[in-house]
Design goal:
The complex is a heterodimer of chains A (326) and B (385). Chain A has 13 helices and no strands. In chain A, helix 8 packs across helix 11. The longest helix of chain A is centred in the N-terminal third of the chain and has 39 residues. Chain A is globular and about 75 Å long. Chain B has 385 residues and is of the alpha+beta class. Chain B contains nine helices and 22 strands. In chain B, the strands form five sheets. A six-stranded mixed sheet of chain B has the order 6-7-8-3-9-10, sandwiched between helices. In chain B, helix 2 packs across helix 3 and helix 3 crosses helix 4. Chain B is globular, with a radius of gyration of 24 Å. Classes of the chains: A mainly alpha (326), B alpha+beta (385). The structure holds adenosine-5'-triphosphate and magnesium ion. Adenosine-5'-triphosphate binds next to strand 2 and helix 1 of chain B.
């Protein structure tokens, strides 16, 4: 029965009146909804619900220093936690987090674009898999372990400092560990593959024939890259920036291990409230502020991107003279 | 004018001198020599893999020749990068920039040259008018049909007024009717603009109808270079004869002082000059379907006549094709204009006959690449030998 009605549904408008349009509509609609069901369940269980809880907690109040779960009954709801979170004690940490994330995202982009382009368009396909594997090697190692590895490299008697002294570029030990620079280096290292992968895929998909056409029409290699290849790889760049920026904003392992007090980030602030002070409400309010920072940054970035695109389009736009009447 | 200008050094001339291209130890282009006059329409015609695209890519600058010299407008082009060559290409798959509109695609080359906005608008409009794409100037390539994309690709190349335009099977993706229209338009454009065209195709009709000269290629070499008439009427080898138009091939032995081939119980006699045929040697005879008349009465004589049974009649528009079976899998094709076709029925006994100047004879050497398969549409090329 199913099979023969599918046949009539395919013929569309020409289908006989026997099967009503309502039945056809339902038949098309139902499977689509079912297909999306797992995704919706996932979204509700693991995204909407937790975010809702965080919002709820942020309005609540700590019961005592020994009770983790806050009091969230509506009669204690207030914005006090937010007032506290934006006090000078904490606010600079949010700005620093934003700064480290933006700089980190851009450094990742600057390193990844040439590398991914080279990998996707210049490297012999036989070696691509191997090189891509090498990019991913750090991912096979535990996040914590590889970040601790950087402690050894960045510490005053570590590799970088020793190396610079041996070469004679520095006389005294260089302290990178427990500084903002240390965190910056650490996050770029940790998030780089998340930028390289989508960019590699995007560059790999751009057709070589388009680059040749561009050169054939008189564009140099550099012009070809900026006018043809990069615009076509933009989806990859955007995906990479999102994949790096968002988790980077919430990272707390890297700043805790490499940043110390000077390189503290919002993630460790939130974690501290939850794990050390047991003030879940305060932590939740900080998390909400962090989410607000992320959203605001994304909106600003999207607007800048649209503006840039509009500018480029306007620059490319050509007005044809009115067709001559003959 | 001066002694520094080599012969054929005018703008738009092309010279290929012993050009070789190897990929590893595979020879894709094997010592090609070609002189193209300014404003000439020359076709590279040949089966798949014979090196047509490779030759174009060397001229455009995407491949460097392994050996030999190439000159455009009298200037050697070795080492000149593609973007500095006065050459434009219409690519096999068009390669339109998907993120730009039709007008922006066409303007691309002008923009690289730093053309001013007003002049650019003017030129783009002209180029789009030329290919009748002005009304669709604001569309993206994805919103165009294959034929429309092809026109845009053409306009994008021609707007730069290159000395040389390379076209790699530009009409390959179009349906027959549109292709025939575009052939006429393209030829018209070329003669108006006076730009040298090197046109790659594997469609022999296309090459015959459009070209000033045709280079028939095989295995990286030019088998024959000549105007369409010469290529059609005086093929230098059985391969060329079979590739241009269709042929009925007959394997046999030379006889009659190099004027005849006796094959499969009949004698094919030719009034053409064939050098190098000695009586008794292996030889191949070829007769075009359109040279053969089919009758239901014996035309008499023993030469250039084959008796058989009418196996099939097909109507190909204004010509009718007869398939005559002459025993043991031997089939002979004949094509007759509809207006002069006799009324015949399948199964009846018929005679195929033709005039002696329509018999082509080839020595074994000239025929080595052709398998005499009378039923095949095209001569089949034996790969590698
Ligand atoms: N980059 C390359 N590496 C190795 N071999 C190649 C390369 N490019 C082309 N070839 C080989 O060179 C030969 C000629 O290729 P070419 O593309 O010039 O053929 P073509 O005449 O254009 O064929 P078609 O009509 O199918 O387009 C082919 O056998 C092809 O496999
Ligand atoms: Mg080709």
């Amino acid at each position: 029965m199913t099979t023969d009605t599918v046949g009539t549904a395919d013929t569309g408008a020409a289908a006989p009146k026997a099967s009503s349009p309502v039945r056809n509509k339902r038949r098309r609609g139902a499977p689509k909804f079912l297909l999306a069901l797992p995704a919706w369940t996932w979204f509700i269980l693991f995204f909407a619900l937790p975010v809702g809880l965080v919002l709820l907690y942020s309005l609540g109040e700590q019961v005592s220093a020994f009770v983790q779960k806050p009091d969230v009954s509506p009669d204690v709801w207030s914005l006090d936690n937010f007032d506290k979170a934006i006090e000078p004690e904490y606010m600079p940490v949010f700005w620093r987090t934003l700064k480290i994330s933006i700089i980190g995202t851009f450094i990742c982009l600057l390193i990844s674009v040439p590398f991914a382009y080279w990998l996707a368009t210049k490297v012999d396909p036989r070696w691509r898999g191997l090189l891509l594997g090498l990019v991913l090697v750090p991912f096979w190692t535990n996040f914590l372990v590889r970040t601790i590895g950087w402690q050894l490299i960045l510490s005053p008697n570590g590799l970088v400092s020793d190396g610079l002294q041996k070469v004679g570029l520095r006389d005294d030990p260089l302290a990178l560990l427990y500084t903002q620079t240390g965190v910056q280096i650490g996050v770029v290292y940790n998030y780089l593959p998340l930028m390289i992968l989508p960019l590699y895929v995007a560059f790999d998909r751009t057709e070589p024939a388009l680059r040749e056409a561009s050169k054939d029409l008189g564009a140099s290699r550099v012009k070809t890259f900026f006018q043809v290849t990069m615009p076509l790889a933009m989806p990859g760049a955007i995906a990479g920036m999102l994949l790096v920026f968002i988790p980077l904003m919430g990272d707390y392992i890297t700043p805790v291990l490499l940043g110390g007090a000077k390189g503290n980030m919002a993630g460790s602030l939130v974690a501290g409230q939850f794990l050390e002070t047991f003030n879940w409400s305060q932590g939740a309010a900080m998390a909400v502020i962090m989410i607000a920072f992320i959203l605001a940054a994304l909106i600003v970035a999207a607007l800048l991107g649209l503006l840039l695109r509009a500018g480029l389009r306007a620059n490319r736009r050509i007005t044809l003279p009115q067709a001559t009447r003959s | 004018m001066t002694d520094t200008v080599s012969p054929g050094g005018e703008t738009g001339s092309v010279e290929l001198i012993d050009v070789v291209k190897m990929f590893g130890d595979f020879t894709a282009v094997d010592s090609i020599n070609l002189q193209v006059q300014p404003g000439e329409f020359i076709s590279l015609l040949g089966p798949s893999g014979c090196g047509k695209t490779t030759t174009l890519r060397m001229l455009a600058g995407f491949e460097e020749p392994t050996a030999g010299e190439m000159r455009i407008s009298g200037q050697p082009i070795a080492g000149t990068p593609p973007h500095k060559r006065d050459v434009n290409t219409v690519f096999q798959a068009y390669a339109l920039f998907p993120h730009m509109t039709v007008a922006e695609n066409v303007a691309y080359g002008l923009r690289q040259r730093g053309t001013g906005k007003a002049e650019m608008g003017q030129k783009v409009a002209e180029a789009l008018d030329m290919v009748k794409m002005r009304p669709l100037a604001e569309r993206k390539p994805k919103q165009l049909s294959g034929g429309q994309q092809q026109r845009v690709a053409l306009a994008r190349a021609l707007v730069n007024r290159p000395s040389l335009l390379l076209l790699d099977e530009p009409l390959g993706a179009l349906d027959r009717k549109l292709r025939e229209e575009m052939q006429i338009e393209l030829k018209l454009l070329q003669s108006q603009l006076g730009i040298t065209f090197i046109f790659v195709t594997h469609d022999q009709e296309e090459a015959l109808s459009m070209s000033d000269r045709i280079a028939v290629m095989l295995d990286g070499r030019i088998e024959q270079l000549g105007d369409p008439y010469t290529i059609y009427e005086h093929p230098s080898s059985a391969f060329v004869a079979g590739f241009i138009g269709q042929q009925n091939f007959f394997n046999g032995k030379a006889a009659g002082g190099g004027r005849a081939v006796s094959a499969e119980g009949c004698t094919l006699i030719s009034s053409r000059d064939t050098t190098g045929l000695s009586d008794g040697s292996e030889a191949l005879a070829a007769v075009r379907p359109e040279a053969i008349t089919v009758t239901d009465t014996d035309p008499g004589g023993q030469q250039n006549v084959i008796r058989g049974e009418l196996a099939g009649i097909s109507h190909l528009g204004d010509v009718i094709q007869f398939v005559v079976s002459a025993g043991e899998g031997r089939e002979i094709l004949s094509r007759v204009p509809r207006t002069s076709a006799p009324r015949l029925d399948t199964g009846q006994t018929v005679w195929c006959s033709w005039n002696a100047d329509h018999t082509y004879l080839f020595t074994a050497e000239q025929a080595e690449l052709v398998m005499a398969d009378p039923a095949s549409d095209k001569a089949e090329v034996l790969a590698g030998n």
